[in-house]
Amino acid sequence: MSKPVRTLLASSLACCLTAVLGFAQVNVVVAGGTGETVQGVLCNQQGLARTADGRLWAITYYNDGKGNYAKSQFDRIYVSSDNGKTWKLATTTRTQGSVRGSLRTDVDGQTLHVAWQANDSTTSTSFYSVYYATYDTIKGQWNGSDFQVAKGVNSNNQYLNPDVAVTPKGTVVVCYNGHRQSPSWSGRMRYLKNNTWSSEQRINSDTYGIMQDVQVHGEDAYFAYRTNSGLYGIRCRRFDTAKGAWGTEGEMQVSQANTTNTGPASSGNNLVVTPNGDIFVIYCKGASTAGKGEIWVGISKANQFKFSTQLKIDSDPSLLGGNHTYYSYGLARTGDIVNVIYSKLSESNNKLYQRWIANYQLLPPIPLTIATGGTKEFEFVSAHRNSSGFHGLMALLTDRGTTGGRALAYVRPTEGASVLHGAGCAGTLSETPMLQAASMPGLGGKLDCALSQLPKTTPGVLFLGVNAQMLGPIPLPLDLSILGLNGCSLYQDVVLPIGYASKADGTASVQLPMPNDPKFAGVPIYFQSFVVAPSATPGNAIMTNGIAMTAR
Fold first, then answer.
1. How many CB atoms are closer than 10 A to CB 96?
2. Which one-letter DSSP state was computed for residue 199?
3. Exposure string over 474-500, b if 16+ CB within 10 A, otherwise e
4. 208-257 pLDDT per residue, tens
């Protein structure tokens, strides 16, 4: 087949995919007013979160432009009840001088974990610290007081660019990096487990580690970051929060494993871990002069801990290698599909592109243009890549070409989502049964529920509900120890019970039809399963986690 014919077919495919997937408009979260400055977050931070009630949350930076140092700067959290079309201010961080933050949804489906860097100085001399707090989205209020994860004390010992994640068992991980080229200029992390903060852990073992981000898979936390050696190499490392120890495989080389990588990689990277344990890390490489810039994704297949698969996403000649930082590309997970969302410096970041990776193959043959804007309109891309749940494609963007700046949200309007909603319980069993969505919920389609880590060939009941606040007159969640299910809770009402039996491998699946009725769009439906488990609890049963599905 000739090259012109292949190009024509690729263009036709891209047009068809664009029509089928129904790309969304980019909507404004907030725009800066006269004298003000507004930004989203960096590519290694998580700027968007979805709660079990279907709402979206975005964290942005705000400066009032009055020059009052810390008193002029805050991180703000906005909320959308219509899948990202319109937004309103929900709350503001309580620490003065807040600059860049990250947020995630808790296992309960309604609490936001928020980490940010800030200083509270009222003078031009300021040193950044990292703070953490939780926000109750149902009550609309912060819980407790801010916790100082890392304290900045001078220009060589201050802490920047935090990211936050939470494991299925509720362990919270906050990572950040030091400032300046010194022993403090390294990636750091702490984790909150059983209401106790760990000591600080150094992520990188090289000279320094910066621009780290974190994703969890089970109770493991994965970090991607840039180091000094190996041509300013991008690396990855795993920490087991259950054991409190780093993985025995050590640091994994990402960009250095690219056999075409003859030039240095640059700062600006992030990672995704898919449900089966594959690790994807995006990065760029270039040279000391423009003309050789490229965007790549390295892939380590589950449990191999070697980035032996390398996919070139696109060329962006203006990208430089070495001590440069770019925020214009990111990964977004939708099930087992990993999407790449990016703009190009060589095009002044005025177009937003998408490609995706399925079965370790890059699709489509040519990148899809999913949005077009002005100069620097898509300079920062924070793609949503949470390891839990089943989310549609979305990203928080920063327009730096508009006076005052804007934070923008790209959200696919036709895709539903599932969100964890409450933790399961295992009793005396070694594994906690898991309930997950197996596909994207959609109107006129099916709601697919996948269960795993169940007792073998054992009956269970899947509960379908529509209310996560009340079970008749009883407030939720309901402690089930009254029924002998010690350590278990019910997180929803019960409208329809559905019986099933697990297979010999401890798995089961349940499918339910979803009416093709617009009135169900955006309405969350809740699921949780009761599982027979003799002797595991005094009540001889345990519970899975809950999930909330929202169809579009």
1. 18
2. P
3. eebbbebeeeebbebbbbbbbeeeeeb
4. 888 999 999 999 999 999 998 767 899 999 999 999 999 999 999 999 99
Is the peptide bond prior to 364 cis by the omega test (within 30 degrees of 0)? yes
Q: What is the fold of 23-415?
A: Neuraminidase (2.120.10)
What is the C-alpha to C-alpha distance for residues 47 and 63, in angstroms, rounded to an integer? 18
| Fold category of 418-550 in CATH | S-adenosyl-L-methionine-dependent methyltransferases (2.20.130)
- Say how many C-beta atoms besides its own lie within 10 A of residue 69's C-beta: 17
Domain with CATH 2.20.130.20 in the chain: 418-550
CATH 2.120.10.10 residue window(s) in the chain: 23-415
Using alpha carbons only, what angle is made at residue 299 by residues 190 and 44, rounded to the nearest 5 degrees?
40
Mean pLDDT for all residues in the chain:
91
208-281-374 Cα angle (round to 5): 100
Quick one: which of 376, 398, 338 has its CA closest to 58?
Answer: 398
Please calculate the CA angle 14-399-163 and round it to the nearest 5 degrees. 95
Q: How far apart are CA 451 and CA 513, in angstroms?
A: 18
Residues 6+ apart with CB under 8 A from 4: none
Produce one character per residue of 363-380: b if its CB has 16 or more CB atoms within 10 Å, e if not.
ebeebbebbebeebbbbb
**CA-to-CA separations, 232 to 255, 299, 483, in angstroms, rounded:** 9, 19, 58
Taking the C-alpha atoms of residue 66 and residue 459, their distance in angstroms, rounded to an integer, is 64
- Confidence check: pLDDT of 13 > 50: no
DSSP bridge pairs for 50: 56
Give CA–CA dist 456/25, Å, rounded. 47
Contact 242, 217 (CB under 8 A): no
Residue type, 430: S
Of 415, 413, 422, the closest CA to residue 439 belongs to: 415
Find, among 34, 36, 123, 25, the residue nearest to 76 by Cα.
36
Q: Which amino acid is present at 352?
A: L
Cα–Cα dist 368/364, whole Å: 8
Asked if 104 contacts 49 with a C-beta cutoff of 8 angstroms, the reply is yes
Confidence at residue 181, expressed as pLDDT on a 0 to 100 scale:
54
